[in-house]
Amino acid sequence: MTTKFYIKDYPRPQFVRDNWLNLNGQWSFRFDDENAGEKSGWQETFEGTHTINVPFTYETQASGIGEEAFHPNVWYSRSVPIPKEAEGKRVLLHFQAVDYIAKVWVNGTMAGAHQGGYAAFSFDITPYLVFGADNTITLKAEDSDSCTQPRGKQRWTKDNFECFYVQTTGIWRTVWLEYAAEQRLDRVKITPDIDRNRVRFDYELTGTEAANGLRLEAIVTLKDRPVKRVGLDIDRPCLSVEVDLVHEANGPWKRSWWSPDRPYLYDVEFVLYAGDAVMDRVGSYFGMRKISIEKNKVLLNNVPLYQRLILDQGYWTESHLTPPSEEALIDDIDKVMEMGYNGVRKHMKIEDARFLYWCDVKGLLVWSEMAATFEYHDRAVEAFSKEWLEIVRQQYNHPSIVAWVPFNESWGISSILRDRSQQKFTEGIYHLTKAIDPNRPVIANDGWEHTVSDILTLHDYVETGDEFLKRYKDLEAITSNDTTCNKWKYAFAEGYGYRGQPIMITEFGGIAYRSEKGWGYGRQVDSDEAFIERFEGLTRAIRSVEGICGYCYTQVTDVQQEINGLLTEDRKPKIPLERIREINRS
């Protein structure tokens, strides 16, 4: 099952236009370790030394290069034919992600630049094009090993260590073109309200000052059946409209809410008119669902939700952070659900929009987590804040996302226990996130040393269920900071305390089979029986503690030297998936 406007491999499935061109594939490529390219005019005349398979980074085997050593500057170039009949349209060049600073030239002229390795960005390249001819797109990616740069699990040393892996440099998600009108939609922010059976559309448009008589219509359908059609006269670039979805007292759509069991999605088409002429047409979808907190419970659609999550780092052997295909994303989601989990905590990675699309379609909950910095500095605060706000805006419409996680385990804020500056940084990010999205929980420092947080999330890699129960039999001692939530970390930073939030164990387990090639948490096991005994004991212990309303097991797959997945890195089950499901659903 897909949504009405779904196009396979379309990189932005919540904002679909028909007229687009995928630019993935063979690009000319060159390292620039001396940073001499710009001075030498590579942006005007580029001669590559390699061919690279975009969107896979040079560090991966899938790229065709497979060089894991760090190179701070890399260049890409390719020729793109722009048809004569596109003249009169605006040509938009999109990059779904480039790590870390991207500078883009078209036919030798600078078209724009962007900083941030995980957010999508685009440029209107129309002024630099020759229509009816081949045009050259050149990109320079500047990366660093700085720990003030949001990098997540990317190493900043020569070799992998602990839970940090080969870095990601340059283009690592889809590059594409689309053709659009001068007057067009830039974005629609979609906010459902199930209590009032309404949905709000906040529109952002370009070119409204250049035309009169603009009108925007939204046509809402459910399973191809008409629900509502609403119009709005356009007189400024930012407007809003609310749509009542209850059109019959006992209509069949009154309770078509999105949930893991019944992931209903409404289709919506936005059509911009100038008089009778269609200027822009965009296909999208939304889910009517509500995530909220009442006392010590997380509620989905006003009903208590027990979250059975699994940590998902989204790495592949041949392509690292880049999914090898859309089918690979779907397969991961299917395996997670087959194991009895109802959600994933997407760890230290902002995932491909197509992954979120399929979570929306299939009904898998997602915690969206920012890639961490690892040094506290004014530069880190600025870089982190800017990119995080971009990401929240870009991911806002996905009904599958039920929590925002800007920080994890005090990474990048290592002195938060007592340092007021670092504490205020997390408070600031919490409130900025709430300013854009007041409707989802925000976990300000997942794992421990919380400041302000809507859910109290704790990490603990204790080895047995009995040990877990011994430590967590007195939850009040942990929530009051009288004792640590594991062997060495307190639940709250100094000056902060428990306010009755829901409590979840959001990292545990991490069990690995005995191997000399990698590591897991605690002692490695020698047999399937030992694995299942430990896994089941921990899971059942957590589920038995009154006051804990969910958990997140570490993790879906092995990742490079970290071999504590329920699946190998090439997605082979270590334990029958149905056995894992039985334990999770018991």
Automatic annotation (TrEMBL):
Any single biological process term in GO: carbohydrate metabolic process
Protein name stated in the entry: Glycoside hydrolase family 2
SUPFAM superfamilies: (Trans)glycosidases, beta-Galactosidase/glucuronidase domain, Galactose-binding domain-like
Pfam families: Glyco_hydro_2, Glyco_hydro_2_C, Glyco_hydro_2_N
Sorted UniProt keywords: Glycosidase, Hydrolase
Segments forming domain Glycoside hydrolase family 2 immunoglobulin-like beta-sandwich: 184-289
Gene Ontology MF terms in the entry: hydrolase activity, hydrolyzing O-glycosyl compounds
InterPro entries referenced in this protein's UniProt entry, alphabetically: Beta-gal/glucu_dom_sf (IPR036156), Galactose-bd-like_sf (IPR008979), GH (IPR017853), GH2_Domain-Containing (IPR051913), Glyco_hydro_2_cat (IPR006103), Glyco_hydro_2_N (IPR006104), Ig-like_fold (IPR013783), Ig-like_GH2 (IPR006102)
Domain Glycoside hydrolase family 2 catalytic: residue ranges: 324-582
The species this protein was found in: Cohnella ginsengisoli
